[in-house]
Design brief:
Blueprint (H helix, E strand, L loop, with lengths): L1 H18 L2 H10 L7 H10 L6 E3 H8 L1 E3 L6 E18 L5 E20 L3 E3 L6 E3 L3 E2 L2 H11 L4 E3 L8 E4 L4 E4 L5 H17 L17 H18 L5 H12 L5 H21 L10 E2 L4 E3 L6
Parallel strand pairs: 8-10
Antiparallel strand pairs: 1-4, 2-5, 3-4, 6-12, 7-11, 9-10
């Protein structure tokens, strides 16, 4: 447990340093240029382009991000608010109960369709990123994968699924999915991340059948799962700091490290449980990561 505490301290220090870095400032500055869409528009985007992660208009991609929409790409149609004013007859009631009518300017709202494009439909200048996809092989990889499968609450399927995420913990089906064709280091890290979700974040039913299940906020769930994955991987000699620090910082921006501090005991206990489960009798030699050149990827909802 002392080693686990040492690793969580490293995690906290690494994220704090990233928060204060120029790389993080550039990332936040870029993210601030993306519009925040309504729930209805988010649904429209996902219906037309399920893998969308960052969307902007044709002109915004060119002006704000130095990117060009690829020739032949079909845009995503959403609704844009169009406020306007018009003169209307308004009735007023006086304190004595009498009423009168007058013509006044009134603010009204209409909507028009606009077209946006996902980043995958564009090319050009690289966006600032704080999360680097892991590369490299891991010694004793097959043994490590088998050990993680054996302690997972849900069966793990390494198969392609319709999402841009690296992994998915499906609570409804009680199954975990991990994308194929990733590096051994990224695959193991993603498996541990999703197993952590399965252990920590299954919806809690209150028993009346009507109230929605209780769940932590999403940024808390992602921060906890990735922190556990970092600690477990570091314990076995697999360095995920290039990915994990950026992942946690991306989900925590605007919230500092207070929630991480609140969750540290849970993270430590879960990490220790997984470490003991993966190598209960020290039969599994500590894996080591054969590092290769890292690839940079955006943070959005990846694990």
């Amino acid at each position: 447990m002392e080693k686990v505490q040492e690793l969580t301290d490293q995690l906290e220090t690494g994220i704090t340093e990233l928060f204060n870095s120029e790389r993080y400032a550039a990332y936040l500055s870029t993210m601030s240029k993306f519009h925040r869409y309504s729930f209805g528009n988010i649904l429209l985007i996902l219906l037309q382009c399920p893998s969308a992660s960052q969307v902007a208009g044709y002109g915004d991609w060119k002006k704000n991000f130095g990117r060009q929409v690829k020739r032949g790409e079909r845009g995503i149609t959403i609704l844009a608010p169009c406020p306007y004013r018009r003169q209307e007859e308004v009735e007023k009631t006086a304190p004595d109960g009498s009423s009168s009518k007058s013509v006044q300017w009134v603010q009204r709202m209409s909507f028009r369709t606009v077209t946006v494009f996902d980043i995958s439909q564009t090319e050009g200048k690289q966006l600032p990123e704080i999360c680097r996809k892991l590369t490299g092989d891991v010694e004793q990889y097959e043994s490590m994968v088998a050990a993680i499968r054996s302690i997972s609450p849900y069966p793990i399927h390494i198969e392609r699924f319709p999402s841009d995420a690296y992994g998915c913990c499906n609570f409804a089906e009680q199954r975990i999915f991990v994308q194929p064709d990733m590096s051994q280091a990224q695959t193991i890290k993603t498996m541990i991340h999703e197993v952590s979700h399965a252990k920590l974040h299954a919806p809690i039913e209150d028993g009346d059948g009507e109230t929605p299940p209780q769940r932590k906020r999403r940024f808390v769930r992602e921060m906890e799962a990735e922190s556990v994955a970092y600690v477990v991987c570091q314990h076995f000699g697999i360095d995920t700091s290039d990915y994990s620090f950026g992942y946690v910082a991306g989900w925590s921006h605007g919230k500092n490290l207070s929630q991480l501090k609140d969750s540290l005991e849970l993270i430590r206990n879960t990490a220790a449980e997984l470490i003991d489960g993966i190598a209960p009798s020290k039969e599994l030699p500590p894996p080591t990561q054969k590092k290769q050149r890292t690839k940079r990827r955006n943070v959005y909802e990846r694990s």
